[in-house]
Amino acid sequence: MGFLWNELIMKPMVNILTIFYSIFSDNFGLSIIFFTILIRILMIPISFRQVKQMLGMQSIQPKLKKIQEKYKDRKDRDSRQKMSQETMALYKQSGVNPVGCLGPMIIQLPIWIGLYRAIFKVVPATPEGFANLSFYLYSWNPVISKVPLNSKFLNIDLVNPVQQAGTVFAIILPIVVAFTTFAQQKVSMFKSSDPRQEQTNRMMLWMMPVMFGFFTLSFPAGLATYIIFSNIAGFFIQIYVLKKLKVKNTLKEFLTLSSPEKGDNDSDNVINNEEVTNGITTIQRQDSGRSNKNRSRRSKRKSRRG
Q1: What's the chain's Rg over C-alpha atoms?
Q2: Whole-angstrom distance, CA of residue 60 vs CA of residue 90
Q3: Full 3-state SS string of the chain
Q4: Of 12, 147, 155, 254, whose CB has the highest number of CB atoms within 10 Å?
Q5: Residue ranges covered by each domain of the chain
Q6: pLDDT digits (tens, 9 = 90+) for 159-198
Q7: Comparing C-alpha atoms, which of 179, 170, 178 is closest to residue 217?
């Protein structure tokens, strides 16, 4: 497991950071920023898939509610099993996967952990760390001749925790992290017809930014830089994705800090959500049709050979 982590996460991450360091005039802060933008651009297809899945989940909420109402007063094991089967059948029929909504979050978690460790690998604090750095650098990487690297950016040492960055930055960075986290969450959040889910969404909308802002004090300043620019890039990418999928009023809802009210806009959103769900289902039917054709061709070839 350690070998795969080093080969698939740590070494590519360390080398990309150091190559950007060489490209951007030995500036470690700019290397983290452009690394962040690169990761976000590569995740655009996953963002499209995530939004489609979330819109699909939103469009089937009335049907899910009917299934829950149907078995609301039945507490026996068989009824619970039937409710689960009907729910899974609805997911399958609509082409919706609840786990698909978590794609970017799942992918970003190893990136956060890897970047946290990569910062200390690229700019180590001890002589032993400099010796270990050669293990992670590819032989063709030109930054080998520039070790040790400069970890300063805007007069902040990106290796040190944010709380050691001086009074001004120790106050500003957590606030910026909290605000950008709120902004990205708000533009990524969809209204749910389930009151409990809507309440949970609202609680997470306000609680997560506060938590991230507080934790930022103990993060390296370089990781705080990554989170800030990842949130900013994610905000604008989400706006772009929603615009491409013709989801209306998203930016307006963000600016008013409120969920959409029921009315014409909601009906338009439901239509758009159903179009997305139908599109997902159509794609799956096309894929299954192609696979069936391929199977029939293979069987004909076998029969001819026989």
Answers
A1: 24
A2: 8
A3: CHHHHHHHHHHHHHHHHHHHHHHCCCCHHHHHHHHHHHHHHHCHHHHHHHHHHHHHHHHCHHHHHHHHHHCCCCCCHHHHHHHHHHHHHHHHHHCCCHHHHHHHHHHHHHHHHHHHHHHHHHCCCCHHHHHHHHHHCCCCCHHHHHCCCCCEECCEECCCEHHHCCHHHHHHHHHHHHHHHHHHHHHHCCCCCCHHHHHHHHHHHHHHHHHHHHHHCCCEHHHHHHHHHHHHHHHHHHHHHHHHCCCCCHHHHHHHCCCCCCCHHHHHHHHHHHHHHHHHHHHHHHHHHHHHHHHHHHHHHHHHHC
A4: 254
A5: 2-60+96-283
A6: 888 998 888 999 999 999 999 999 988 888 777 666 777 7
A7: 170
Hey, what are 72's tokens? 């609301």
